[in-house]
Amino acid sequence: MFQAKVREHRYRVIADRIEQSIADGVYEPGERIASIRQLAESFAASINTMKSALNLLQDRGLIESRPRAGTYVVSRPEVFEGSEYVDDLVDAVIEEYTCRPAAAPTTAKMDHAVLPQELVPADLIKSAMQAAASTQSPLLDGFATFERTAELRSLVSQREMLHGIAINPDQLVLASSIEQTVFQLLVTLNPQRLPVAVQAPTYYGHLTILRALGMPAFELPTMPDGSFSVARLAEAVRRNQVGIALLDTAVHNPTGSCLPESVLAEIAHLVDETQLKVIEYGMLRDMRYTTSASPSLYSLAPSGSVFLCSSYAETLVPSIKAAWVAAGTHATHVRDRWQATSCTVSALQLAILEHMLASGKVRRVQDHNRKLVYESLTAAAELVQDTFPAGSQVTAPSGGFALWIRMPEGVSGRDIFRAARKEGIAIAPGAMFARCQDDYDGWIRVAPGILNHDKEQALRRLATLVADGERHLVDS
């Protein structure tokens, strides 16, 4: 039994290393790879182990065997109509929005849609840290193995039941961050690097991951209420134009909308019908401004094709990045693959998180924070409506931390971003949230956190900058 496990682990490790070589460009698309005997010698492995590794790579769609010709790397998929690579956008985001120093010290930071610093439960974190140390949690004794995380996985499962989502704790896989979770799922589930269906606009972090993996984005234009054309997605799936979908179903970033349950039901039907793999991004589910249960695609389409992932980093403890994915019947495969590719997670972070969830105080803290953020967003939205020029629109968020603001026709969000930055006001331009920057250049995302005098003044100044931009268009 022990030797069989070693052989299985060995061929998976070899397959993962070859896959990484393909991703790194060591083997180009269409290139013939070394013979099985040469590979076996290179990896100091047996012929049978090497055959198993190559079979696994074929199953992943990365290589193909051609009779009497050898084994070749599968050519990069065609970029279909409606999908594009996002290199230009991501370069612009990194250069324009994160690397260039601001012209003035930031006096009103409203660019990051995360839990406001003043709402971080410092006392709860401190007591959880002390409890983790004093009780000598098994998580602190070495690596965060599957067995040692049993209690935490059970607590996460109980938390999700509050939203009406039933998850088997044994089917939860832990990771070091939500970004790494999405990255690894895309690598695992979309080995051919086919286009990935995403909402448009979408969280720019998704776009940076797609860029890093060389996967095109297939956009699903999304309405302010969060809905999009499921028929468009279905047609793309049937025409093999999409390999997987990455959908923000809880609270959509940047619009703050929640995907209507009717749309979720349509997607669930499509998933069951086509076995489309879906990565369901549920980061802000705890920040929905509704008393009803939050529907989940994972619950509606229990076919093993939906992978629900989330983290408490944005809604509870920003400094604890640990994330999880409900991988259903694929949990063992996902967990084994991630361990083989060093998808490790901080045992200390998990121990602290475990004690926080076990304290019974998290729900009360989040209910309190949700109320304060909702009141602040409502007040900020009213201020925008009162001060921004005619033709501006602000969405009424159903959750999250931000306002999605449309400016009068022709006013550029990038221009407003630059002008605001010169005055120490930090916002996010709409151009960050789509593969084509012009698509949402007329929008800005503003995350006021807990509204105070400085931020109120900043919003009024933004209104003036938008009005100035509109006048400039008229004058020109």
Helix/strand layout:
Layout: H1 2-23, H2 36-42, H3 47-59, E1 63-66, E2 70-73, E3 83-84, H4 87-99, E4 108-109, H5 122-134, H6 150-161, E5 172-175, H7 178-189, E6 196-200, H8 204-213, E7 217-221, H9 230-238, E8 244-248, H10 261-274, E9 278-281, H11 297-300, E10 306-311, E11 323-326, H12 331-340, H13 347-358, H14 362-387, E12 393-394, E13 403-406, H15 413-422, E14 425-426, E15 428-429, E16 443-446, H16 453-475
Parallel strand pairs: 4-14, 6-7, 6-8, 8-9, 9-10
Antiparallel strand pairs: 1-2, 3-7, 5-11, 10-11, 12-13, 13-16, 15-16
Helix pairs in contact: 1-3, 2-3, 5-13, 6-13, 7-8, 9-10, 14-16, 15-16
Supply the helix-strand structural class: alpha/beta
Question: What low-confidence regions span 5 or more consecutive residues with pLDDT below 50?
Answer: 1-8
Give Rg in angstroms: 24 Å
CATH class of the largest domain: Alpha Beta
Write down the overall mean pLDDT: 84
Tell me the overall shape.
globular
CATH topology of the largest domain: Aspartate Aminotransferase, domain 2
* Full CATH superfamily name of the largest domain: Type I PLP-dependent aspartate aminotransferase-like (Major domain)
Q: Architecture of the largest domain, according to CATH? A: 3-Layer(aba) Sandwich
Please state roughly what percent of the residues sit in beta strands, choosing from under 5%, 5-15%, 15-25%, 25-35%, 35-45% or over 45%.
5-15%
Query: What is the spatial order of strands in the main beta sheet?
Result: 3-7-6-8-9-10-11-5
Number of strands: 16
What is the helix fraction of residues, given as a range?
40-55%
